[in-house]
Amino acid sequence: MIEPILLTAARVCTLEGARVLTNASGFFFERDERLFLVTSRHVVVDEPSKHFPDSLEIELHTDSANLAESTGFSIPLYRGGKSIWRQGQDTAGEIDVAVIEIERAALPAKTVYRAFTPAHLEVDARQIEVGSLLLVVGFPLGFHDTLHHMPVVRHAVIASSFGLRFQGEGYFLTDARTHRGTSGAPVVMRAPAGSVAKGDLPWQLLGVHSARLDVGTRDRKLDEALGLNCAWYADILMTLTES
């Protein structure tokens, strides 16, 4: 039996026309029978790096009995010249999270996936301590199980006070080894025993991995990289998926 947490994540390719631009990560979120793909905002558009894709392609499993069976599923980023993703903003500026609604009717009939729900966002910040163990489920540098089309998982720990906006921004820090391509991955923690509402996904969705952090004054010859990352608080999904 495959662990359901691995079916929440999707490998994301960004495209401009038929040209592949980058690899990234994403995951599924379901609310009121509507289905969304969640990823980082800089995956769908990033002005500083002049990254302007016009569509995404995700890989979907199509046979629960044979996970080697998959298909690509294209998601346009614009309709009628207007962007169709949703992104957030708060008093500190833009939030590096984007959601795109997926038309269920367009999915292959036997699509196999798992989706987080609002129940997975219900956390008590007072019970989440610095050093708590996390998992980041994604596709670093596009790496994954190419036979079964599965993501890989990296260990992480909470590296800043959870619930406190680090530097006034809408994210917390994690300590983990990450790479390009992990942007948009879910950051999760095992749910307390007895969390029935979470079904076969006994995880708390805490954040959306965005990027590695570094110190601009670091001597690149003498000092190693910090190994810290920012994860945007996942509760922004409740705002971004409102009807």
Give me a quick take on this structure.
β4 and β5 form a beta hairpin.
Point out poorly predicted stretches.
Answer: none
**DSSP helix count?**
2
Query: Care to count the β-strands?
Result: 15
User: What fraction of the residues are assigned to beta strands by DSSP?
Assistant: 35-45%
Q: What is the succession of H and E elements?
A: EEEHEEEEEEEEEEEEH
Task: Tell me the Rg in angstroms.
Answer: 17 Å
* Chain-averaged pLDDT: 91
Q: How would you classify the helix and strand content by structural class?
A: mainly beta
The quaternary organization reads as: single chain
Task: State the share of residues found in helices, binned by percent.
Answer: under 10%
Give the biggest beta sheet: 7 strands, antiparallel
Between the first and last Cα atoms, what is the distance in angstroms? 35 Å
Strands in their spatial order, largest beta sheet: 5-4-1-2-3-9-8
Gross morphology: globular
What's the arrangement of secondary structure elements?
Elements: E1 9-16, E2 19-31, E3 34-39, H1 41-44, E4 55-61, E5 70-76, E6 78-79, E7 82-83, E8 86-90, E9 93-102, E10 133-138, E11 152-158, E12 171-175, E13 186-190, E14 203-213, E15 228-233, H2 236-240
